[in-house]
Amino acid sequence: MNPQEKIQQLTEELRKHNYNYYVLDNPKISDYEFDMKLKELQKLEEKYPKLQDENSPTKRVGGAITKNFPTVKHEHRMYSLSNSYSEEDLLDWEKRILKVAEQEVEYVCELKYDGASISLTYQNGKFSQAVTRGDGIQGDEVTANVKTIKSVPLQLKGENHPETFHIRGEIVLPYEGFAKLNAERIENGEEPYANPRNTASGSLKLQDSSTTAKRPLDCLLYSIVGEKVGLATQFESLEKARKWGFKVPPESKLVHNMNEVLAFIEYWNKHRHDLPYETDGVVVKVNNLQLQEELGFTAKSPRWAMAYKFKAEEASTVLKQITYQVGRTGAITPVANLEAVQLAGTSVKRASLHNADQIEKLDIREGDTVYVEKGGEIIPKITGVDFTKRTPDSKPTTYIKNCPECGSELIRNEGEALHYCPNTNACKPQIIGRIQHYISRKALDIEGLGSETVALLVNEQLINSYADLYELKKEAILPLERMAEKSAENLINGIEASKKVPFERVLFGLGIRYVGETVAKKLAKHYKKINALAEASFEDLIQVDEIGDRIAESVVAFFEDEKNRTIIQRLQDYGLQLQISEEELAGQTNVLEGKTFVISGVFEKVSRSELKKLIEKNGGKNTSSISKKTDYLVTGENMGPAKLKKAEDLEVSLLSENEFLEMVNFK
Ligand SMILES: NC(=O)c1ccc[n+]([C@@H]2O[C@H](COP(=O)([O-])OP(=O)(O)OC[C@H]3O[C@@H](n4cnc5c(N)ncnc54)[C@H](O)[C@@H]3O)[C@@H](O)[C@H]2O)c1
Ligand SMILES: [Zn+2]
């Protein structure tokens, strides 16, 4: 291939990856691989300047705009950052700065948060618009979605805000929320998201802001832009932003020379995993804004800032064996057992392979040398195979056909990514998993009974379903390993106490596929009694707010199963709460359910549907639980929905849309 062809090939490849990454939020290769390809192209372009294309991926900010949102031109361009990977790169950069500055320069060191770039606009102290970086020149207007993020202030604190200004930052998804979201997706047979960054970016581009509101996004701000803002340094602007109520990362630091910059980098290279969200480097910025202006920009990035990228957290190791795990719903997950390797400060021996398609796509085989990457997930994942190290006797992986625990033939439903063991009632990990779920904190929360004890009880054939828990006798469990008089007593008491747990949590505890916490709440509220739910038809179920085909089908199937009906009858006989409380039945509590939002103020003459519309338009959710009577309202920021009062008890005022927005504080 001649250089011209090579440049063309790399350009096309990078464009495709940019599209996957920025538009579809679904990268197909790792960032490290991407960066290496980009570097290769950069080198070639430097060597053959004549072959350079002005639209080359090396010269453009990678993003793009989608058609789903209004396009907005940025008043001030949004650049990317130049990258450096070594101390020398940074020292070279400093030399270029000193030529202009002619004296020692102060820097601000910030962490490079790995999320989606955002520009927020404020007018007269009020939030007015949020726009993605897009291609740097124009981006997508995603105001409604950004409004659902708690840390974005809608009204600024303090006074003397510039009439109009923009503030830039990063929308991030903390590890914890990312892991939870992916666990749900896997459970639902959907493909897990690749990393927190693309998930954050994808969350901003959702059509329905109530879905965005469910994601625990955060917004970290790092630079104020606009004319007549009257600031002299970057550090000062961070402090000002903080005073106005923005979430400005506390790690940012003012330093006085390059040595201090290097110390900052060294420190965070070690400690970055203590932070709740992903960072991929440090951004060093010239502190003096006047000097920043003198230094200016290249086609792609400012000359006054430099990103130092942490080493990619990838390692290679040998895949010894693929094993398969059976979850409580019968879902099978393939697991890679690896030769131990150090990655991001921990020793890694196992990695998730997700599902059969993933194995096939990457062509992963036992004995292969594989790349392991630690993204936002707790369990690292395999990103690829080093084919140069594959031995000639290697054989393609054939996915198992039978359950590794009970031998039943596996099934895979159309459109789903996972295989299932259909032997729900007799496959041991499913029995154990179901009971473990039943006793878990958000379900029956049985004190004195842990996951290990459940496994022990099942293995000793003392229980076979959660209903059996209520037949357990102290004498029977005392002989068990590590069981003393006191702990046996606690266990029995804990089981007894679970009879008081409210219906919605019992319903969640039953472990009906796709009936998570929120759905259980919805169903409990709607049907009020388990018998009514058990009799509900598919058509009936899908009428309930937020209940789709998949959930409805699963609920119907659960209650059609004679074994489940018997178990529920038993629970009823033991005295569990299988209907909502007496007060609720009598209709005395009439609430804006859960902690979805808190409204301060009082509405008058607003119909329920008008209120619903306003709330939904602004990213609210759970509107179905707004009281039918509009005079049930919340007052005061800290009053939970339980403290609702009737409107007539309150002072009555207002309502315009803007006033409404000021009062609503989405949780
Ligand atoms: N895997 C793939 O297919 C694929 C494709 C395209 C791009 N990528 C990856 O995307 C990255 C390139 O994206 P990019 O153009 O956004 O550049 P970048 O992520 O390297 O850096 C620029 C961005 O950093 C962010 N940032 C975070 N903290 C900051 C701070 N304190 N101050 C200023 N900015 C801060 C800003 O959003 C800014 O736009 C590379 O890491 C590349 O590997 C991967
Ligand atoms: Zn099985």
From TrEMBL:
Its cofactor is Mg(2+); Mn(2+). DNA ligase that catalyzes the formation of phosphodiester linkages between 5'-phosphoryl and 3'-hydroxyl groups in double-stranded DNA using NAD as a coenzyme and as the energy source for the reaction. It is essential for DNA replication and repair of damaged DNA. Pfam families: BRCT, DNA_ligase_aden, DNA_ligase_ZBD, HHH_2, HHH_5, OB_DNA_ligase. It comes from Psychroflexus salis. Transmembrane segments: none annotated. InterPro entries: BRCT_dom, BRCT_dom_sf, DisA/LigA_HHH, DNA_ligase, DNAligase_adenylation, DNAligase_N, Hlx-hairpin-Hlx_DNA-bd_motif, NA-bd_OB-fold. Zn(2+) binds at C403, C406, C421, C427. Its EC number is 6.5.1.2. This is DNA ligase. The gene is ligA. It is an enzyme of class 6 (ligase). GO terms for molecular function: DNA binding; DNA ligase (NAD+) activity; metal ion binding.
